[in-house]
Amino acid sequence: MKTQMNYAKEGIFTKEMQIVEQKENLSKDFLLENIACGKIIIPANINHKSLDLNGIGFGLRTKVNVNLGVSNDCVDYSEEMKKVELAHKFGIEAIMDLSNYGKTSRFRDELVNVSKAMIGTVPDAWMMMKDAENPFFEYYDDLLDICLKYDVTLSLGDALRPGSTHDASDGAQISELIELSLLTQRAWDVGVQVMIEGPGHMAINEIEANMQLEKRLCKGAPFYVLGPLVIDIGAEYDHISGAIGGAVAAASGADMLCYVTPAEHLRLPNLEDVREGIVATKIVTHAGDIAKLPKERVRDEMSKARQEIDWEKMFKLAIDGEKAKKMFNERRPDDLNSCSMCGKMCAMNTMNQILKGEDVSLA
C-alpha cells in the first residue's frame, strides 16, 4: 500500500490531493512538492469511508481539532455523538477521542463510521500497567509498517510538554522535540505522513519562537498545538486564554489548533462548552490565516454586508450565525436599516443616505 506521501514522491496526483487542491485553491505542483517533503499531510486512512478529506500544513488554512470522549464520571456516549454532530455543523476538520473508560473500542468504531472529520486517538496508559517502555516507541518500525499499509498519519505527541507557563520551553520539552524530529525522519523514510503535537501552556512572548523551532528541527512537519493557554489562572475562561495564544501560534506558523473549552481543567465539557470552544477557535484560525495567508482576506465579506445593512447575509457569514441572529432578534429594532444600538444614528445607514443624495435626519 502506498501513502499520499509516497504517491507525491512519484509525482502521482491522487484524487485525495485533487480534493485538497480545490478546497485550498493551490496548484498541483505546490501540493506535490510539499506533500513529498512532509510539509503538508493529507490524513486519508483507507478504513475511514465517511471522511471529508482535508490537508494540514504549509500554505494551507489552519485546521481545528475537537477533543471529546467519556470518562469514569461521565459515561454518556449519546452526548459525545451530539458533540460530533456539533463539530460537523461548524466544519471542524479533526476529532480526537480521549475516552479513558468503558467500551472505548466500540465507541471509536462508531466514530469512524459516522465522522466526516479525521479521527485521532490517544493510546491507553500501558507503560504504567506493564512497567515497560512505551511499545509504540520500542516497536516504532513495526508501527510504521501498519501505518504504511493503511495510510495512517502519525500525530507524534509530546509527553514532556509544559503543564503550565512555568515550565514552558524548558530542556525537557526541547529535548523531546529533538527526539520527535528523529522519529519524523524515520517515518518519512518509508513514506508515512507525520504531524507534531506541541505545547498547551506557554507565555505569549515564547509562542512565535516555539513555532519556528519546531519547523526548523522537524524540517517543516505540520505543527499542532493545544491553545496554547497564555496564563494559568483563567479557569472557566480558558477558551479565552487559549484563543489569545492560538492566534499568535496560528499567525506564526501553527498548522492546526486544538480547541479549548470553558470547562478545561474543571470538568468534562458539555455541549454548550464545546460550542463556545469551537467558535472561539474558528475565530482564532481565521485571524491567524489572515496574517499568514494573504488570500484569506478575500473571504471576509462581512464589512460589505454591514455597509449594505444586509442582516441575513451577516448571519450567513458569521462563524456562529445562529447565535448572531438570536442576539439580533432579542432586541430587534423597529427600523431594520440599523440595530438597536445606534438606531437612527447608524453610521452605515447615514453614509448610505449621503451617497444616495438623500436628506439625513437624526431626530
From TrEMBL:
Keywords, A to Z, come to: 4Fe-4S, Iron, Iron-sulfur, Lyase, Metal-binding, S-adenosyl-L-methionine, Zinc
- Write one Gene Ontology MF term: lyase activity
**One Pfam family matching this protein:** ThiC_Rad_SAM
One of its GO biological process terms is: thiamine biosynthetic process
GO annotation, cellular component aspect: cytosol
Needs which cofactor? [4Fe-4S] cluster
The cross-references to InterPro entries, in alphabetical order and at most eight, read: ThiC/Bza_core_dom (IPR038521), ThiC/BzaA/B (IPR002817)
| Name listed for the protein in its UniProt record | Phosphomethylpyrimidine synthase ThiC
Q: Look up and give the organism this protein is from.
A: Campylobacter jejuni
